[in-house]
Design a protein that fits this description.
The chain is an alpha+beta fold and about 190 residues long. The chain folds into 2 domains: about 5-140, Adenine-n6-DNA-methyltransferase TaqI, Chain A, domain 2, CATH 3.90.220; about 140-189. The chain is built from 4 helices and 10 strands; from the N terminus they run E-E-E-E-E-E-E-E-E-E-H-H-H-H. The protein has helices at about 100-110, 110-120, 130-135, 145-185; strands at about 5-10, 15-20, 25, 30-35, 35, 40-45, 60-65, 75, 85, 90-95. A 4-stranded antiparallel sheet has the order 1-10-7-8, with helices on one face. Helix 1 (about 100-110) packs across helix 4.
Length: about 190
């Protein structure tokens, strides 16, 4: 199934970064860590121009990073008022009667998808995936109930991965503290 047949793909509104706090929250690639929103910046629009509601992110939208050195997909897991993506992204608005957002996010991160997008990028310095390339991405779409089962499995995996990473970080810190305290290693001295 082509991606465009199970969702709407929206080009983002061109909003500028603001150095001061504003009503608009802006998502840029630097706000994302491990496909999760870690922070946001503030944005501003010229002449207080009104922004159409289709440009604001809502729960279950997926941000697809189409500009930069990597492609990424970020699931919007909650409604955040006045949240807008930078122009590095496309907004994917899934038809929830056809596709489960978590399943779609995972599909967009598979090796098959990465190879497809890599093969179809343009730009020498900054890679760009055009909207028509994204729309024509072809993938297998199982029945909705099966997608929900996959989504549950994916969510469990993500929790386990996060917990494992936390455990390994704590273990690394413990080893480092033991070595430093036992041998009184002085850093930079």
């Amino acid at each position: 199934m082509k991606l465009k047949s199970c969702m709407t793909i929206v080009n983002p509104f061109n909003i500028k970064k603001s150095e001061v706090e504003s009503d608009y929250k802006l998502i840029t690639p630097s706000c994302i860590k491990d496909s999760k929103i870690e922070s946001f910046e503030y944005g501003s629009v010229d002449n207080d121009k009104e922004i159409h509601s289709k440009y604001f992110l809502v729960k279950d939208d997926i941000l697809f990073q189409a500009k930069g050195n990597k492609s990424d997909s970020i699931l919007i897991e909650e409604d955040i008022e006045n949240l807008l993506p930078s122009t590095s992204y496309f907004i994917l608005r899934p038809d929830l009667t056809k596709i489960v957002p978590k399943y779609l996010q995972w599909i967009l991160k598979t090796e098959v998808a990465e190879k497809y997008f890599e093969k179809n990028t343009s730009g020498a310095t900054i890679k760009v995936i055009r909207k028509n390339i994204l729309e024509d991405f072809d993938f297998n779409l199982p029945p909705l109930e099966e997608q929900k089962e996959f989504a549950t499995l994916i969510e469990a995996f993500e929790i386990e991965k996060k917990e494992t990473e936390k455990y390994l970080k704590a273990k690394e810190e413990l080893i480092e503290r033991k070595i430093l305290s036992k041998y009184e290693v002085i850093i930079g001295g």
